[in-house]
Design a protein that fits this description.
Order of helices and strands: HHHHH
Structural class: mainly alpha
Strand content: under 5%
Shape: elongated
Number of helices: 5
Largest sheet: none
Helix content: over 70%
Protein backbone atom coordinates (compact mmCIF):
# COMPACT_ATOMS: atom_id res chain seq x y z
CA UNK A 1 0.00 0.00 0.00
CA UNK A 2 2.93 2.34 0.66
CA UNK A 3 4.08 1.99 -2.95
CA UNK A 4 0.59 2.80 -4.25
CA UNK A 5 0.47 5.78 -1.88
CA UNK A 6 3.80 7.00 -3.23
CA UNK A 7 2.58 6.69 -6.85
CA UNK A 8 -0.65 8.55 -6.03
CA UNK A 9 1.35 11.21 -4.19
CA UNK A 10 3.70 11.65 -7.15
CA UNK A 11 0.86 11.95 -9.67
CA UNK A 12 -1.01 14.34 -7.37
CA UNK A 13 2.13 16.43 -6.96
CA UNK A 14 2.57 16.54 -10.73
CA UNK A 15 -1.07 17.62 -11.21
CA UNK A 16 -0.59 20.38 -8.63
CA UNK A 17 2.49 21.64 -10.43
CA UNK A 18 0.66 21.53 -13.78
CA UNK A 19 -2.02 23.71 -12.16
CA UNK A 20 0.65 26.18 -11.12
CA UNK A 21 2.07 26.33 -14.64
CA UNK A 22 -1.41 26.84 -16.06
CA UNK A 23 -1.74 29.91 -13.81
CA UNK A 24 1.50 31.28 -15.26
CA UNK A 25 0.30 30.53 -18.81
CA UNK A 26 -3.05 32.27 -18.30
CA UNK A 27 -1.29 35.31 -16.83
CA UNK A 28 0.98 35.39 -19.89
CA UNK A 29 -1.96 34.96 -22.27
CA UNK A 30 -3.81 37.81 -20.52
CA UNK A 31 -0.78 40.08 -20.84
CA UNK A 32 -0.46 39.25 -24.55
CA UNK A 33 -4.20 39.93 -24.98
CA UNK A 34 -3.85 43.34 -23.30
CA UNK A 35 -0.87 44.27 -25.51
CA UNK A 36 -2.57 43.16 -28.74
CA UNK A 37 -5.79 44.93 -27.80
CA UNK A 38 -4.42 48.29 -26.65
CA UNK A 39 -1.13 48.58 -28.52
CA UNK A 40 -1.88 46.90 -31.85
CA UNK A 41 -5.67 47.43 -31.77
CA UNK A 42 -6.12 43.78 -32.82
CA UNK A 43 -7.41 41.70 -29.87
CA UNK A 44 -6.85 37.95 -29.92
CA UNK A 45 -10.39 37.27 -28.61
CA UNK A 46 -9.35 33.90 -27.25
CA UNK A 47 -8.29 34.96 -23.79
CA UNK A 48 -11.80 34.72 -22.33
CA UNK A 49 -12.43 31.24 -23.64
CA UNK A 50 -9.03 29.80 -22.76
CA UNK A 51 -9.10 31.65 -19.44
CA UNK A 52 -12.29 29.79 -18.53
CA UNK A 53 -10.83 26.45 -19.58
CA UNK A 54 -7.68 27.25 -17.62
CA UNK A 55 -9.63 28.10 -14.47
CA UNK A 56 -11.47 24.81 -14.82
CA UNK A 57 -8.16 22.93 -15.21
CA UNK A 58 -6.56 24.73 -12.26
CA UNK A 59 -9.46 23.81 -9.96
CA UNK A 60 -9.78 20.16 -10.88
CA UNK A 61 -6.11 19.33 -11.37
CA UNK A 62 -5.27 21.07 -8.10
CA UNK A 63 -7.99 19.26 -6.16
CA UNK A 64 -5.93 16.18 -5.27
CA UNK A 65 -2.81 18.21 -4.54
CA UNK A 66 -4.77 20.45 -2.18
CA UNK A 67 -6.25 17.41 -0.40
CA UNK A 68 -2.83 15.80 -0.03
CA UNK A 69 -1.38 19.01 1.41
CA UNK A 70 -4.36 19.40 3.81
CA UNK A 71 -5.21 22.66 2.10
CA UNK A 72 -8.97 22.23 2.16
CA UNK A 73 -10.93 24.05 4.83
CA UNK A 74 -11.29 22.01 8.00
CA UNK A 75 -13.41 22.75 11.01
CA UNK A 76 -11.61 20.99 13.83
CA UNK A 77 -12.57 22.83 17.00
CA UNK A 78 -14.91 20.00 18.10
CA UNK A 79 -12.67 17.11 17.06
CA UNK A 80 -9.66 18.65 18.81
CA UNK A 81 -11.49 18.43 22.14
CA UNK A 82 -12.15 14.69 21.75
CA UNK A 83 -9.79 11.83 22.57
CA UNK A 84 -7.42 11.18 19.68
CA UNK A 85 -8.93 7.73 18.97
CA UNK A 86 -12.40 9.24 18.54
CA UNK A 87 -11.00 12.07 16.42
CA UNK A 88 -9.19 9.57 14.19
CA UNK A 89 -12.36 7.53 13.68
CA UNK A 90 -14.30 10.69 12.83
CA UNK A 91 -11.56 11.45 10.29
CA UNK A 92 -12.00 7.98 8.76
CA UNK A 93 -15.77 8.51 8.51
CA UNK A 94 -15.42 11.96 6.90
CA UNK A 95 -12.77 10.65 4.50
CA UNK A 96 -15.08 7.78 3.51
CA UNK A 97 -17.94 10.23 2.89
CA UNK A 98 -15.66 12.42 0.77
CA UNK A 99 -14.43 9.30 -1.05
CA UNK A 100 -18.03 8.31 -1.80
CA UNK A 101 -18.70 11.78 -3.24
CA UNK A 102 -15.46 11.81 -5.25
CA UNK A 103 -16.12 8.29 -6.53
CA UNK A 104 -19.61 9.15 -7.76
CA UNK A 105 -18.39 12.44 -9.25
CA UNK A 106 -15.55 10.57 -10.96
CA UNK A 107 -17.90 7.99 -12.49
CA UNK A 108 -20.38 10.63 -13.67
CA UNK A 109 -17.63 12.81 -15.13
CA UNK A 110 -16.08 9.86 -17.03
CA UNK A 111 -19.53 9.13 -18.49
CA UNK A 112 -19.91 12.82 -19.38
CA UNK A 113 -16.53 12.81 -21.12
CA UNK A 114 -17.44 9.68 -23.08
CA UNK A 115 -20.65 11.39 -24.26
CA UNK A 116 -18.63 14.45 -25.24
CA UNK A 117 -16.33 12.26 -27.34
CA UNK A 118 -19.31 10.51 -28.97
CA UNK A 119 -21.11 13.73 -29.82
CA UNK A 120 -17.94 15.63 -30.71
CA UNK A 121 -19.23 18.60 -28.70
CA UNK A 122 -17.72 22.00 -29.51
CA UNK A 123 -17.80 25.41 -27.88
CA UNK A 124 -20.23 28.07 -29.13
CA UNK A 125 -17.41 30.52 -29.79
CA UNK A 126 -15.89 31.30 -33.17
CA UNK A 127 -12.97 29.00 -32.21
CA UNK A 128 -15.35 25.99 -32.04
CA UNK A 129 -13.00 24.34 -29.53
CA UNK A 130 -13.62 20.58 -29.14
CA UNK A 131 -14.89 20.43 -25.56
CA UNK A 132 -13.55 16.94 -24.90
CA UNK A 133 -10.08 18.37 -24.24
CA UNK A 134 -10.95 20.94 -21.57
CA UNK A 135 -13.56 18.57 -20.10
CA UNK A 136 -10.93 15.88 -19.65
CA UNK A 137 -9.60 17.55 -16.50
CA UNK A 138 -12.90 16.94 -14.70
CA UNK A 139 -12.75 13.11 -14.52
CA UNK A 140 -8.97 13.10 -14.18
CA UNK A 141 -9.17 15.54 -11.27
CA UNK A 142 -11.98 13.69 -9.49
CA UNK A 143 -10.25 10.34 -9.98
CA UNK A 144 -6.98 11.66 -8.55
CA UNK A 145 -8.92 13.22 -5.67
CA UNK A 146 -10.62 9.87 -4.95
CA UNK A 147 -7.26 8.09 -5.00
CA UNK A 148 -5.74 10.60 -2.58
CA UNK A 149 -8.73 10.17 -0.26
CA UNK A 150 -8.42 6.39 -0.45
CA UNK A 151 -4.75 6.56 0.51
CA UNK A 152 -5.62 8.91 3.39
CA UNK A 153 -8.27 6.46 4.64
CA UNK A 154 -5.69 3.66 4.77
CA UNK A 155 -3.09 5.92 6.40
CA UNK A 156 -5.55 7.02 9.08
CA UNK A 157 -6.61 3.43 9.81
CA UNK A 158 -2.93 2.44 10.05
CA UNK A 159 -2.39 5.33 12.48
CA UNK A 160 -5.33 4.15 14.60
CA UNK A 161 -3.87 0.63 14.74
CA UNK A 162 -0.41 1.93 15.65
CA UNK A 163 -1.89 4.09 18.42
CA UNK A 164 -3.78 1.06 19.76
CA UNK A 165 -0.56 -1.03 19.79
CA UNK A 166 1.30 1.72 21.62
CA UNK A 167 -1.55 1.98 24.12
CA UNK A 168 -1.58 -1.80 24.66
CA UNK A 169 2.16 -1.79 25.29
CA UNK A 170 1.66 0.79 28.00
CA UNK A 171 2.90 3.82 26.05
Amino acid sequence: MKRIGLVVETISNLAGHVSGWIIILIITLTMVEVVTRYVFRQPLILCDEFGGYSLFAICFLGLSYCARENGHIRITFVVERMPSQVGNWIRVITLLLALLYAGVASKVSWDFLAASFQRNMRSNSWLMTPLKWPQMVLPVGFTLFALVLLVQVFQTIRKIKEDQRIEELGG
